[in-house]
Every structure is written in C-alpha cells, then in structure tokens.
Amino acid sequence: MATVDKTVTEPATEAVTYERIGDVGVITLQEGRLNLFTNDSFLRLEEILHEIPTSGIRALVLRSGAEHFSAGVNVEIFKDVSADEARAMFSRLLPNLTKLEDLPFPTISSVHGVCAAAGLELSLGCDLIWAGESAMFVQIEAMIGAATFLGGAQRLAERAGSARAKEIVFTADLYDAATFERWNIVNKVVPDAELWDQTLAFATRLAAGPTRAHAVTKRLVHSYLEDGILTADREILDVATRLFETEDMQSNVRTLLEHGAKGQRERAQFEGR
Amino acid sequence: MSLVEVERHGDVAHVVLSDPPLNRFSMDLARDLSTAVAEVSSSDARAVLLRAEGEHFSAGADVNMFIGLSEEEARGGLDEFMEMVHQLERLEIPTLAAVQGACVAAGLEVALGCDLIWAADESQMGQLEAMIGATPFAGGSQRLVARAGAGRAKEMVMTGGLYPAEKMLEWGVVQRVVPTAALREKAERFAARLAAGPTRAHAVTKQVMRAHLEGGLEQADAILPALGATVMITEDLQNGVKTFLEQGPGKAEFNGR
User: Fold this and answer.
1) Domain parsing of chain A, residue ranges
2) Which ipTM did the prediction report?
3) B217 in the same domain as B184
4) Are B111 and B224 members of one domain?
5) What pLDDT is recorded for position B186?
6) A6 pLDDT tier (thresholds 50, 70, 90)
7) Residue in B74, B149, B155 closest to A244 by CB
8) Hey, which of A68, A176, A188, A210 would disulfide with A114, CB 3.0 to 4.6 Å?
9) Contact between B133 and A251 using a beta-carbon 8 Å cutoff
10) DSSP code of residue A70
11) Three-state helix/strand/coil letters over B24-85
C-alpha cells in the first residue's frame, strides 16, 4: 500500500470531491466513467470523512458524477496480493466504512447506473439509499472468487434478511432498483431524471430536522445490530434522555402543546442543538 | 378507575386501553397497563389481545410531561416506560395487538412490544418523535429494525412519517390488515385460536426468538436444546404426536400443559 503524503498537490480533477449545499454535505465520486475505486480515491474519501463530522453539516449525500455510481474497486489493487498484505489493506479501508456509518447525522446514497461491489458496500454504509429507476445493483465479488471485503454480506442481511443476502452474494447477479426496493435494501426509487433533485430535497429536509435526535436514533439502531435489543434498550436511558435537555426538543414540545398536534409537522423548527 | 381494563374471554385475556378517543400515554396509563400485564401474567390466560377503546389505538405520549424535564428526571420516567414494554414482551403467552385509527409514537412502541400486530385497513402508523426533536423513547427504533430491517427503520424514524397499514404490512411491521369494521371480531377469533394452541411450545418459541434478538443466533441456539427438551415432555406434544400418527395433521387438541 502506498504511504500517504498529504503534501502532494491534488490532481486537477479529483476522484472524489466534496461540497456543501446549505446544511447538506455532498460527496461526489468521479473517477472516469465507471468510478473504479483506486487507492487514491479511498485516501481522498478518508480525508473527507475525517473532516465532515464536526463541519456543521446536518445531512450527507453520497453520489456519483460519472455515468455509473461505481463499478467497485479497480481489481488492479488485488493482483498478487498476499493474505497478509490484504489484511493490511482492508484494515486501512474498513475504518472508512465505520466512519461513514458513525457520522452523527443522516446519510443518503443517491444511486444511478451500475452500483457494484465496493460501490454497493459504500451505499450500504449510508443510512438510506435512493435509486434512479434504471439503477442496477450487484455484489459481484463471487465472479472473481472473492468475498464482500467491505462488509456487504452482513449489511445486506441487516436490511433484507440472511437468505436474500446470501442469494445476492452467491449469484453475483444484477438486480434492478425495484427488486432492491421490495427487499428493503433501497428506500425509494424515483424517475432517473429526478433522482438528484429529489435526493437533495429529501436530504435538505432531513438536515432541517432534529439532528441530535437523529444521531441518537442512529446509535440505537447500531447498538441493536451490534449488541442486541436489551443493550439498545439500556442506551435509551444513557443516551436518549440527553435529548430532553436539547433546545430542539424543549422548544418543539412547547410549540406542540401551544398549537396542538395538527400542523406540528409544518410548525416544527430545529437548529440541530 | 383504571385506564386499562382486563377482560377475560375464554382463554384469552383482553387488555384494553380505555382512555378514548386518543388513548394518550400518560404515566398513569403506562402504570395501569403495567398493572394489567402483571395481572395477566399471573393468570392462566393462554393468549393476550391488546386493543383500544375508541377511534384511535393511541396518539402516543402526553408530551405535557416532557416540558422542562432535566436529563435526570427524564431517565426515571423512561426507565419505567421501558420496563412496561419489557414486561409485555416477557409474557410467556402469545400477544396480539389490534390497532385502529392512529397508532403512533409510544402507541406504536407498545404495539411493537406484542408478538403480532393486526391493523385496520384505515389505520396509520408512525414514529412521529422527530416532529418534536425526539427519538422513540420506548424502544421503537430497535424493534422496527428487528421487523423491517435497518434501512426501513431509519427511514421511518428519521422522516417521522405516517404510514398506511398496507405499507406496514409490506415492510413486515404488521402481520395482517383487515377491514376496520371487522378488526375486533377477526382479532378476537385469531387470539382464541392462538390460545387453543400448544401454549408451552409457544412460550419456548418466544424465548428462543427473544434470545436471537438479544444475543444473535449463538445465544438462541445455546438455549434451545434445554428448552426444547421441556417441550418434548409436555402433554400437548406427546398427545399431538400420537394424534398426528393416528389421525393425520390438524386434528390434535391442546390444553396448554
């Protein structure tokens, strides 16, 4: 693996870019037509994921600026790699997935075109997945005798159950967006032409929501998946009760009591504090 | 007067939220529900139907009690509320929630504490807490993950959306949708059928599935052999096997022993 030299000037067109639209952070993958991940794109992603947790954004969208979402990793980086070297490689790559999953605000992957292998695994690392109607998904690793090195198998099982997860990984077949929506892997399928506008509008809505409550929700879901229902239930007391002392909760409870439940959705206002 | 009534219909205990039309969860309602569940737990009922009087199953917590609470004060109340859900979940007999109208926030969390949920076709469900800057405080997030997977659970909680019964059926949150007018009768009939089943086997089924939610496959598999053995020697199983061999499937009658 290449060593990281942060003093090197970035190339004119970066493989991964970051911009901020209001309170929404947007990560755009744009490495050629297929968005094949290289070591460089992972390094750039790592930098971004390091910077954004405290940047003040309240939602994140992961998308592609290329023809496809991503065809996965450029398998060049797998050639003639020993088990030990692979271990080193993935012990550097996997923490990025954890960083993505642990971001303290909602994250959405916005998928068009082909979303394969590591591309699908990064999407599964987001809270929600929105897809254009012609998007195609595939966990393609079996075709090269590999496993889902970035956690696809277990994250598919989280959303779709173990039998569907095994089916998807064993077959390495292409699945359309409607099928993945039916299996609860994709949250919403929208017309291709509207994908970006709709995802951004939705992310903007989530970003205007109770950010600290969303962070707690993420933690409870994660805690259940990691350590079971009792641990998650205990975290309600240790973590969720902090929300009672947030401005967002107290001010909106007051609004609700003052004006009644009807119209609360429109009246609610959150600062993320 | 209690805000939660317990009625006995044959082997089925009806636990009835009786603070219509909204059946809002105040601490009083939560405590009365807890008392009702304790009563059922020490009875010989073989199934529970949790239902609600009035237009709505429950509009959720009475948010008046949230105003100006400190983290410490909140902790006490939430502890009690969570324990109430746990008590419901620990019942050894099958539990069915029949929901109509709005079944939201704490109301949905209590329904999720039941084994099965049947919903009226016009009912609507949602974890609305995000609307007031909150998260589900009685375990709704993790229980939605258990039924519908992580993606759907996060979607429901983060949007604070209100979903029609049919969508909840599609996502596996509810098990059956029936016409509003027929809900009570159909749910009662199904609860009676569960009550006439192999009660001790159902109790083990619940324990094993619970173990899976608590500690994964490993924990569930670890407790199964010993628990399975206790089922093997029940009257119901021995009689069920004999009847099956002599008369074919579906003929056995169970007495819960």
Assistant:
1) 16-207, 211-267
2) 0.85
3) no
4) no
5) 98
6) very low
7) B74
8) A68
9) yes
10) B
11) CECHHHHHHHHHHHHHHHCCCCCEEEEEECCCCCECCECHHHHCCCCHHHHHHHHHHHHHHH
Domain A16-207 has CATH 3.90.226.10: yes
Is residue A229 scored above 80 in pLDDT?
yes
Query: Both tokens of residue B161?
Result: 């959306």
pLDDT score for A10? 47
Residues in chain B closer than 8 A to A265 (CB atoms) = 131, 160
Whether B223 and B163 map to the same domain: the answer is no
pTM: 0.90
Give the chain A residue whose CA is nearest to the CA of B76. Answer: A237
In angstroms, the CA B195 to CA B168 distance is 25
pLDDT digits (tens, 9 = 90+) for B12-56: 999 999 999 999 999 999 999 999 999 999 999 999 999 999 999
With vertex at residue A160, the alpha carbon angle to CA A219 and CA A53, rounded to the nearest 5 degrees, is 30
Provide the shortest C-alpha distance from residue A116 to chain B (in Å): 19
User: How many domains is chain B built from?
Assistant: 2
Torsion of CA B142, B144, B149, B154, to 10 degrees: -80
Which of B67, B131, B137 has its CB closest to that of A264? B131
CATH number of the domain within which B177 lies: 3.90.226.10
| Domain shared by B30 and B120, yes or no | yes
